[in-house]
Amino acid sequence: MPRATSSSKPEEGSVQCEICHAIIARRQDFPRHMRIHSDKRDEIIFKCPWPGCAYESLQRSNVDIHHRIHTQEKSKACPDCDFTTSDPGSLTRHRKRFHGYQPKAKTA
Where would I find the C2H2-type domain in this sequence (predicted)? Predict the structure, then answer.
């Protein structure tokens, strides 16, 4: 997910939250951002099912990725070497850093 930036002026295609003033890089991500301001936040939050773990997120996919830390599942494999991980973001960072990977730009 694109990160909110701290600049005071939104760039083209971005939107600024009127509540917290965060700038969301992609307009399509704005509804997801607004969930952090929901009055029903406690009802829509996803929690890690691992006993004793307090991790929670407003996105189920984040909890799923986190849960793999506990299970030690590493289903994401680099096509160029023997690196494996449970986190798709870690795989992308690895490929950029070590193999010069250039991901395709997200489109609106």
Answer: 15-42, 46-75
What whole-number distance in Å separates Cα of residue 83 and Cα of residue 95? 9
Burial (Cβ within 10 Å: 0-12, 13-18, ≥19) of residue 87? middle
The conformation of residue 47, written as its DSSP 8-state character, comes to: E
pLDDT confidence bin for 63, thresholds 50/70/90: very high
Structure tokens at 101: 């990977």
pTM of this structure: 0.62
Number of neighbours of residue 94 by Cβ within 10 angstroms? 19
Q: In sequence order, what DSSP letters do the residues of 43-94 get, joined into one string?
A: HH-EE--STT---EESSHHHHHHHHHHHHT---EE-SSSS-EES-HHHHHHH
Whole-number pLDDT of residue 8: 54
Cite the beta strand spans of 2-54 per DSSP E: 15-16, 23-24, 46-47
